[in-house]
Amino acid sequence: MKNKIYSLLAACTLLLLNFGYSQELPDSESLKAIADEYLEVNPEASGVIAAIGNSGSKAWKYSKGYKGLGRDSFLTGKEAFIAASITKTFVAVCILQLEEEGKLAISDKVTRYLDEELIRRLSLYKGSSYENKITIAQLLRHTSGIFDYLNETQTHLEAYKNHPQRTYTLEDRVAIALDVGSATSRPGEYHYSNTNYILLGMILEKLESKDIGSIINQRIIVPLGLNNTSLNPEEKMMSKMLKGYYTDWDLTSFTYYFNRQNPAGGILTTVDDLLIFGNAVFSGRLFRSPLTLEKMLNFHKGYGLGVMQFEKNRKTGRVVGHSGFDPGYTCYLAYVEKPGLTVVTVINQSELRVNMPAFLVVKMVHLIKEGL
Q1: What are the residue boundaries of the Beta-lactamase-related domain, all occurrences included (predicted)?
Q2: DSSP calls for 183-212
Q3: Direct distance between the N- and C-terminal alpha carbons of the chain, in angstroms, rounded to an integer
Q4: Which of 36, 85, 162, 181 has its CA 20 to 30 A from that of 305?
């Protein structure tokens, strides 16, 4: 189902670019009505924010609805939210920067940096372990075979029910993986696993001698001026968040605590900051060499190094980025390569009737085709 969603997102974005957009587009009442409709078909959500832009400016941005189901505060479009697995792209950038600096190679075995016994236990599959075969690249590509500690949301449910305000170390998350499951395959097969990025966070912390939040801050957030982005946000940020829901459960506080310092899915950010980040990373500005970006965008079964490929088209090049699904939020970061255009969407509901934030882009394309 998710693969179909990703493909549709890409197709919609490609159509938008093929037909172009004008400076009049942001002022269109018809476009605003599209966002209204997205909320109407997902009545459990209270708000949606969407933006399209390039490295120079935002071409279009719109927010519709309320900060929460209480309907007591209208959205401004500046609200923060947990961008979930889009965090993986931030982590992959840090790893590739370290490779450019000669501090590691993604071909290195993971046991060069992490405890061999730990990796042996994590890689145990049908009586055999593969601790000496798993590489950093396999963690980045989700081809390590290591079990996903989130266990198809069961870990979330257990934490919400029993420890809603607990924070977790990287070691805590790995311990959960060891406790609730075992390796899903030998190294080499694609199995999406959040545990991979917990281990990448541990590698980064060992090499940089600082916590993962500080590493991302130093390498990405400060250089790009992402003033509303953090992996370790202050508690006062909760008052500025778009409230996140699963049906009518308010998961904002839980998601905030559960995801602190979580390299697999914890980045707190805004639509504006994600536009800046998307344009920076996919234009290559965060790397010393264009070859590093090409390495990042070398895809296997639709996944590269912390990046998804939604589509590839002769006219517009690759459509790449990442999706984010977490308790309370559904968001997308998509970058269309040749025109250098970024699309960001978020809605504060993790159980959608129309499970596709690209809904906005679909309707925009229809209007453009009609000659708006």
Answers
A1: 44-351
A2: --SSTTS----HHHHHHHHHHHHHHHTS-H
A3: 32
A4: 181
As to burial, measured by CB atoms within 10 angstroms (0-12 exposed, 13-18 middle, 19+ buried), residue 192 is middle
Name which of 96, 139, 110, 88 is nearest 306 in CA terms. 88
- What is the crossing angle of helices 2-19 and 359-369, to 10°? 30
227 φ/ψ angles, rounded to the nearest 5 degrees:
-75, -15
pLDDT tens series, the chain, 372 aa: 344 334 334 434 433 444 344 433 434 576 667 777 777 888 889 999 988 888 766 677 889 999 999 998 999 999 999 999 999 999 999 999 999 999 999 999 999 999 999 999 999 999 999 999 999 999 999 999 999 999 988 999 999 999 999 999 999 999 999 999 999 999 999 999 999 999 999 999 999 999 999 999 999 999 999 999 999 999 999 999 999 999 899 999 999 999 999 999 999 999 999 999 999 999 999 999 999 999 999 998 899 999 999 887 776 678 899 999 999 999 989 888 877 888 888 999 988 765 444 445 444 433 433 433
The CA distance from 242 to 82, in Å, is 9
DSSP state of 149: T
pTM for the complete prediction?
0.90
| Separation of CA 206 from chain center | 23
Strands 47-53 and 249-250: unpaired
- Rounded to whole angstroms, the Cα distance separating 280 from 300 reads 23
Domains, the chain, in order of start with CATH, read 2-85+215-369 (3.40.710.10), 89-210 (3.40.710.10)
Q: Is 358 left (phi over 0), alpha (psi -120 to 50) or beta?
A: alpha
Q: Tell me the β-bridge partners of 50.
A: 62, 345
**Alpha carbons 336 and 14: distance in angstroms, whole number:** 8
Cβ(246)–Cβ(69) under 8 Å?
Answer: no
